[in-house]
Amino acid sequence: MAGIGFRLPDKVAGKSLLAGLKGYFYAAFLVAGPWLMSILTIFLISSACQLTSAETSTFRISVVYLYSLSLIFTGLYQMPLTRFISDEIFKKRVSSLIPAFLKMSKIVLLFSIFSGIALIGYIPMSTAFRLTFVAALSIINLIWLSNIFLTCLSDYQSISLIHLLGALAGFSGAWFFQGRFGLEGAFSGFVLGQAIMLLGIIIRIIHEIPFSSHYYDISIISVLRKYILFLWIGFTYNLGIWVDKMMFWMSPFGEKICGILFSFDLFDTAAFFSYVTVVPALSVLFYHVETSFHEAYRNFYGAINFRQSFTTIENCNRDLLTVLKKTLLKMFKVQFPITIFFIVFAPEIFEKIGYPEEMITPFRLACSGSFFQSFFLLTFLLLLYFDFPFDALVSSSVYLFCNIAVNSFVIGYSRSDLAGLSFLIAAVLAFVLSWYLLHKRISDLIYITYMKFPMPEEADIDERMIDADGRIGETIYIRTF
């Protein structure tokens, strides 16, 4: 997507091992910073804070609900807004981004407040807890929105520091306040850390992105309508991630925690741990997409724009496929041993941290599913990178509906031990399909690229060029330079 990129090559210039490790470190924080820090914070709070078992469950499932609801809502505007930012950067209208950010923030904030108020009516907790829940939903939604605009920044040190400080503040605040206010204190402390993270991101956005005094009348509705296909892409993908968890929450296996808050701890915890295991693959994915693949991408379209020879364009096209295959191979080499390690030694790991033996099989399935999902994410993003949104929508829809279908079978046959199977099968099928579509599109990319644009200075069909039978004659007149 034109203009989008964190400009990692500028920050990790050089061939040294230190430069490469630095690039992977930044990539890990940029692609997984917020949710990774949140998962670790939740784990530390649950382990260190002196809460009862019921209070710990209420705290954990409240945070899970906040993230699931906020991500599904964010999916409705994430892709259209990202495309809008991309187009504005390409048009060199960066100064329009701050007005767009402010307007979108108002919409997200209002939606979060009203939806949060509607939800807390079904959560029989204290007033302080329910108000904190509304504040948390608003803050986390704004964090996801801010992360979209974060793509314009290049201050990696500050971004990484913001995530670390937010996580540290969340844990410290929860540990400090829970001793005085119990569950409400722990929950408020966690939300305080998220608020600090949001404030830091907003400060960097305002500091980095130029702001013009010229008023830009940006209609968010028009943006969503213009990129309606991207709306469905983001929604189906994010819903596909969470739908199997939600189905188990509402199934006979779900445990009612508080009001409308349900959980299925056997799979919830296993899924969260499995996501942490694929951070190395996500880091490799983002690093190579923003460096080697982005370079090959620019070389290909640069060769076309500057009217290079057809042989040169063909070579650049082959380079795209080569870089894509190398990226997949690099991800496999990095992630496969890690995934195998956690699958093989899952019994020893779960025994060490005190989790039940019944969680091992769901964790192994979820770990395998996360492995394939990381590869699906690469091919899915590159379909968007080359502007093939329909193919991306087909892939994300297969991911969603396959997850629903297989999980319905698992729940219908009361096989709670197979929780995570639908996630694995959906990720495998979505990856295979998206890889096939992407490989086919890149193989035909020269033809597709030239067919998308009309011939320059081509004359309209003249009536004198049409035969008596209505067909166009063989002679076509084209104006020359």
Topology, please?
Elements (H helix, E strand, L loop, with lengths): L7 H4 L5 H32 L4 H22 L3 H13 L6 H24 L6 H23 L6 H53 L11 H7 L1 H22 L5 E4 L2 E3 L1 H13 L1 H27 L4 H35 L1 H8 L6 H26 L3 H24 L8 H23 L1 H8 L29
Antiparallel strand pairs: 1-2
Helix pairs in contact: 2-7, 2-11, 3-6, 3-9, 4-9, 5-6, 6-7, 8-9, 9-15, 10-14, 11-12, 11-14, 12-14, 14-15, 14-16, 15-16
Write up what this structure looks like.
The chain is built from 17 helices and two strands. The protein has helices at about 10, 15-50, 55-75, 80-90, 95-120, 125-150, 155-210, 220-225, 230-250, 265-275, 280-305, 310-345, 345-355, 360-385, 390-410, 420-445, 445-450, and strands at about 255-260, 260-265. Helix 10 crosses helix 14 and helix 11 (about 280-305) runs parallel beside helix 14 (about 360-385). The longest helix has about 55 residues, at about 155-210. A hairpin with a 2-residue loop joins strand 1 and strand 2 (about 260-265). It has about 475 residues and is an all-alpha fold.
Helix content: over 70%
Q: Could you say which overall geometry the principal axes of the C-alpha atoms support?
A: globular
Q: Using DSSP, what is the number of strands?
A: 2
- Count of individual domains: 2
Largest sheet: 2 strands, antiparallel
- Percentage of β-strand residues: under 5%
As residue ranges, the low-confidence spans are 1-6, 464-481
Give the strand order of the largest sheet, numbering strands 1, 2, ... along the chain.
1-2
